Amino acid sequence: MRGRHGLAGVVAGFGALALVVGLSACGETKTTDTAKPGALEGKGPITLATGKDTSGYLQGALDKWNSSHPNEQVRLIELPESADQQRQQMIQNAQTKSDAYTVLNTDVVWTAEFAANGWIEQLPEDQFALDKMLKGAVETTKYFNKLYAAPYLTDAGMLYYRKDLLDAAGITAPPKTWDELKSACQKVAPQAGGAGCYGGQFEKYEGLTCNFSEAVASAGANVVDDQGKPALSDAKAKQGLDFLVKSFQDGTIPKEGITYKEEEGRRAFQEGKLIFHRQWPYQYAKANATDGSSKVAGKFAVAPLPGLTGPGKATLGGHNLAISKFGKNKGTALEFIKFLTSEAEEKVHLQKTSEAPVYAALYDDPELVKQFPYLPVLKDAVGSAVPRPRIVKYNDATTAIQDEAYAALTGTKSSEQALKDLQTKLTSIVGNK
Amino acid sequence: MTATSVDARTVPAGKPRGHVTNRRAGVGRLAFLLLSPSVLVLGLVIGYPIVSALRISFVKTTEGIDANTGLITRTTGFSLDNYTNIFTGETGRLFWNAFWNTTTFTVTTVVIETVVGVCMALIMNRAFRGRGLVRASILVPWAIPTAISGLLWRWIFTSQGIANDVLNTHVLWTTEGIQSWLAVVIADTWKTAPFIGLLVLAGLQIIPAEVYEAAKIDGADAWRTFWRITLPLVQPALVVAVLFRMLDVLRMFDLPFVLIGRGKMSTDTLSILAYNEMSNLRFGPAAAYATVLFVYVAIVAYVFVRVLGADIVGRGVGRSK
């Protein structure tokens, strides 16, 4: 009889399990906690969740903090290198309400999503020197006019160009418009040894969203307007996208450009296969390396991105520091963020990693400009840069942008149709947020 | 290990043999008691997730944004919408496209891998010098994690990569189109043909040498020996290998994801669609995709085991006797 009983027990157990699982969902209506400008209190050990510390700078900074704060130690938690996976781990951490992560190193495009879901704390504005920071970078930390993260690092695309080739062809200034860029290529072509004219990031991933937004903004339009409404019906948006589409058609961008992410493009530029390259600041040091890895060391310079009728606008990248709602010792976390984002610390950071600071003054520091000659150009680029759409469902928006832009670049859709479809998709994504 | 678990699954399909006497019932009870811990574990690691995923797939979440604070408000309730959405409109187009990719990947790769795998097994089964080395080297691809081999193949298939260099072409393998589909098939074949080879090799090694001797004496040529002796006798192992591969390819995710990247119409599979929904925190639709895939896999497995599997094994064994 015991066996029979056991079987019945197991069956009943499963039934009960299924029932419980089922019942727990019935009529479940849940609202996320309402926002209180949370009191950031409590001192003690905390953690910093961030992407890979490839330069080793962060551990050094942490050691500095830890030696002066023996009771408020900060432990470094390195997440995977890809931004997608970092986001996913942070979201998982938030969904399980785990206190494993205290301070989060977030990409500028995540702020709206993280804030709207109540995963990060609102920060007191008066504790940060926001007025000394680049305006664009500060904007990325706000959601509904409240500060949800501290501006930490910034980033913007620049135009890398082969100064040696342009000089040889008698072109004294880098191109300011797309037409100038194309005609410069024609002049340079005889000496360029078959190098492609222009490159960027056109593979179907976040880089394409940046390059597409840039092209649209550089033509004088916007993907999303000030009120947060998609604005791609603007005729200028089509002119922006057409620059990329036609460049692929007439060979201004080499055919293989459609497979370029940052690294593929960098390799091509370093091998002398591109005359102009739209790229982030990180390429400067690598392309200038004199250990033989780069064939263009000392032969290139940077300039602001060109546009339709004048200088273009870059897409704003970068990172912010936020405090997880579910972390402990938030008082320490706030102090630690203030330390890492202080002007003095950001200067060290720049010197050690060449990652761009958010303080305007550092871009004019003669000592730093000597070490990083691209700083003045980058300051302009960041200053005029346009943020990517700041919407809660950013991931859906960027997927839609990539789908349509890729279809236009590969010729499966006309640019007109692609923009029309994108306008519809974005409207629905923003509409039902 | 894996092979035995499939055998175990096919056995209970037949009726319990013999009469159930009191004594045997007692033995049965004891057997059940002894098995119950593993039943419990299976229930926890397999039963619970399935039930839970099934439940989530019916949960529809409606999101809104509080106009003052900007915080998300969520209301959940039960509905069939997650399922109907899969099959309609733009998502329907993506679904059927992914369904087609998943199916064509399965059919193509399994056919190619079976042919290549059987050839590998025949080679590995021969006695010759350096056999150990050949066996080991054939198995290396199988030992490499899929994500890593995806990265390796991505290097091979870049525009300046080895593939274009060797073939003397300028194909952009990772772009939308048949070439990316082909790249995935090539990489998958490279990786998993050894798996079929390994299982078939196990099957080959239990074929007694006398059977071949007899064939030789009867004057059968190599081709005839292969069709009439080797293949029928190795069929049970082969069927298991093919079934495993089919179930594996139907949920293919990592190779297209790493090698080609997500969001490409030519290589997106059903698993990638489920992943996309999940990474956007839409767990209901993600679970619905996963459930649809689960049903599809279950149907394929059932058809294969019931109709093809049982039949082939039966005839094969019968003829050899």
UniProtKB/TrEMBL annotation, chain A:
<keyword id="KW-0732">Signal</keyword>
<protein>
    <submittedName>
        <fullName>ABC transporter substrate-binding protein</fullName>
    </submittedName>
</protein>
<dbReference type="InterPro" id="IPR006059">
    <property type="entry name" value="SBP"/>
</dbReference>
<dbReference type="Pfam" id="PF01547">
    <property type="entry name" value="SBP_bac_1"/>
</dbReference>
<dbReference type="GO" id="GO:1901982">
    <property type="term" value="F:maltose binding"/>
</dbReference>
<dbReference type="GO" id="GO:0042956">
    <property type="term" value="P:maltodextrin transmembrane transport"/>
</dbReference>
<dbReference type="GO" id="GO:0055052">
    <property type="term" value="C:ATP-binding cassette (ABC) transporter complex, substrate-binding subunit-containing"/>
</dbReference>
<comment type="similarity">
    <text>Belongs to the bacterial solute-binding protein 1 family.</text>
</comment>
<dbReference type="GO" id="GO:0015768">
    <property type="term" value="P:maltose transport"/>
</dbReference>
<keyword id="KW-0813">Transport</keyword>
UniProtKB/TrEMBL annotation, chain B:
<dbReference type="Pfam" id="PF00528">
    <property type="entry name" value="BPD_transp_1"/>
</dbReference>
<keyword id="KW-1133">Transmembrane helix</keyword>
<keyword id="KW-0813">Transport</keyword>
<feature type="transmembrane region" description="Helical">
    <location>
        <begin position="136"/>
        <end position="156"/>
    </location>
</feature>
<keyword id="KW-0472">Membrane</keyword>
<feature type="transmembrane region" description="Helical">
    <location>
        <begin position="104"/>
        <end position="124"/>
    </location>
</feature>
<dbReference type="GO" id="GO:0055085">
    <property type="term" value="P:transmembrane transport"/>
</dbReference>
<comment type="similarity">
    <text>Belongs to the binding-protein-dependent transport system permease family.</text>
</comment>
<dbReference type="InterPro" id="IPR052730">
    <property type="entry name" value="Sugar_ABC_transporter"/>
</dbReference>
<feature type="domain" description="ABC transmembrane type-1">
    <location>
        <begin position="99"/>
        <end position="304"/>
    </location>
</feature>
<feature type="transmembrane region" description="Helical">
    <location>
        <begin position="286"/>
        <end position="305"/>
    </location>
</feature>
<protein>
    <submittedName>
        <fullName>ABC transporter permease</fullName>
    </submittedName>
</protein>
<keyword id="KW-0812">Transmembrane</keyword>
<dbReference type="GO" id="GO:0005886">
    <property type="term" value="C:plasma membrane"/>
</dbReference>
<dbReference type="InterPro" id="IPR035906">
    <property type="entry name" value="MetI-like_sf"/>
</dbReference>
<feature type="transmembrane region" description="Helical">
    <location>
        <begin position="30"/>
        <end position="51"/>
    </location>
</feature>
<feature type="transmembrane region" description="Helical">
    <location>
        <begin position="226"/>
        <end position="247"/>
    </location>
</feature>
<dbReference type="InterPro" id="IPR000515">
    <property type="entry name" value="MetI-like"/>
</dbReference>
